[in-house]
Please model this.
Amino acid sequence: MNRNRLKAARGAVAAAGLALAAALPANAQTTQSVEQFYKGKQIDVIIYTANNSAYDFYARLLTTHMGRFLPGKPTFVHKNMVGAGGLTASRHLYTVAPKDGSVIGTVGRGLAFDPILGRNDLGIDFLKFNWIGSMNRESTVALAWNDPRVKVKTFEDLQKTELLVPGTGAGADSELIPVALNFLAGTKFKIVKGYKNTGSAALAVESGELEGIAYWSWSALRSSNMHWINDNKINMLFHTGDRVHPEIPKVRLIRDLVKEPTKKAALEFILARELLGRPFLAPPDVPADRVKALRDAFNATLKDKEFLVDAERRRAEINLVTGAEIDQILKTAVAAPKSVIDTVKQALGQK
Model:
């Protein structure tokens, strides 16, 4: 082979090598160490809700501390990306954001379950995201105002007597979950629509316009209206967590109050979103070592004494759910039997 042909052959091999590298997933290409990659960098944090929302609050609390535990100690920049009930942020993270570990986000915990229920227009496979973890294992409470005019005092009362509760928008959990509970648990929530948020609805409860709230996260209730509990203003009818809550140990679990097997399984499916709490994720195809670093930093942050003191000062409930646990929750949901999915759809009014 003459020199020119040899040179051409080497060039072709080099070009083929570059093409192969481009075709490989990101986690097969990285040669930089995690510390080298993150040193001096900013990590964009995509938040699907507006500034001062609960998701925004948790994201800013996390990133105040998480940089201490990531190699290279990067800083964080928050970007609120509101739209389409969280789809705008989710699609950005799935298709637009760099897949190198420089962008993470927090999205609505319920969106990942929509494709399982047959919503095929999202264009997102949530199992392909790299789930970093969740800051709490959310538990919501159903409550009735403790007043003689309100006849509902217990769960059993709620199965016999209507309770006027707020709805905060079509498709919101405040409207979907009570409807599902009426079907699955025999409750008699009567939704009054048109409330801006649960905070405004709480004022309506105090004024006598409403009789209770069907679906309010314990973390939000304790941070904004703890005086209701301290002053015995409410009767808590049940909570939706998957275990006895240490702060409200006498409040019953709705999961234990539904006995029929298929309905119980459907309820578990619907409430699985709450186990995701306040979830954080990275785009698909981020290099594996960077995903591990993000997960390790997240876990270390949520166990850190300084962080926990700050969280307590801000009255934020913290219960670590790891990225691996989120992966398993979603895989279990995907594997749910058709009979359960059909019952879930019926409970949510989708069938």
User: Anything to note?
Assistant: The CA atoms of residues 42 and 315 lie 28 Å apart. The radius of gyration is 24 Å.
